[in-house]
## 1
Amino acid sequence: MSTPADQSTYKPVRFSETIITELMIPSYSNFGGKIHGGILLSLMDKVAYVCAAKHAGNYCVTASIDTVDFMQPVEVGELVSLMASVNYVGKTSLVVGIRVISENIKTNVVKHTNTSYFTMVAKDEQNNPVLIPGLVLENKDQVRRFIEARRRKEIKRGYKQEIEHIAIPADFEQCKQLLADERCAVSS
């Protein structure tokens, strides 16, 4: 039976919860008049950094982002809020969950536009990974998020292994046969 971990350095989720709110201005828009996805990604990276660095007590870098689905467009003039919390911690990395909502300040209509998960790695002054505090889970939602993040990590690990074993036929004719029902044309 393992001994319980020393929890004196653990921090509750609420310690590092972070909200960034920003007004969407015309210079943020794309050619379709909606807010550029890259603007939202940049804001998400910013809020993930703040949340992770607060928890870790160190500089943090983005290691990966698990899916970004743009579910609703964001309009110029809307107020966007990005709510971040630490969902999972490992030894040197942590997963920050981010929920993005936009609010039309004239109509008060609020819509959920994105949810994403950023894996961040804590670094010391020499740019080496550093041990981070454990996480105190204080309610059922936090427990659920921790377990879901751990499950996403397992799925991601399996996906990486599958990708490493993608085999493309060496024979060009076999490749062309694999493309027979696709919307592409091979010219030669």
Note: Residues 140-164 form the longest helix (25 residues).
## 2
Amino acid sequence: MTTFLEQAQQLLAQMDEREQQLALTIIQRISKHQGYGAAFTWSLGVVYEDVQPGRSRCSMQIDPGHYNPAGIAHGGVAYSLLDTAMGSAFWTALERPLGCATLELKINYLRPIVDGNIIASAELVERTTRFGILTGRVVNEAGDLLALGQGTFAIINYPKE
């Protein structure tokens, strides 16, 4: 039986130097997670900066692991950051055992994301007994608007533990 370290070494040996650097970047992102969120957001490097009932701000540092073949951040990066900010804003506004799930998220991409820190802020606009509507924006450190979104989130009843 091989150990985790041996398995990792075998995988790294099959990669070229660029792929090894990307693998290290993802491991570094995961190692910095804050103990909440999900593995997917950890692997992207999402940082929860301020989460309050109905409001949230999350950020991430863009690196080459986020790039598409054109050398800019993949559109899914901004989308995922915005979805995370909206979901955390809504989740914190709900009473347990209620939770939420994204039903729909519309996003407008306004500028390419190349590098630096990007910040998503989200706000709950309206809540009914079945869903919530949230708005959000993604900006760079200079405050330039990169993406704008609106999402609909279903209220779900988590099973009791």
Note: Helices lie at 4-13, 17-31, 39-44, 75-91.
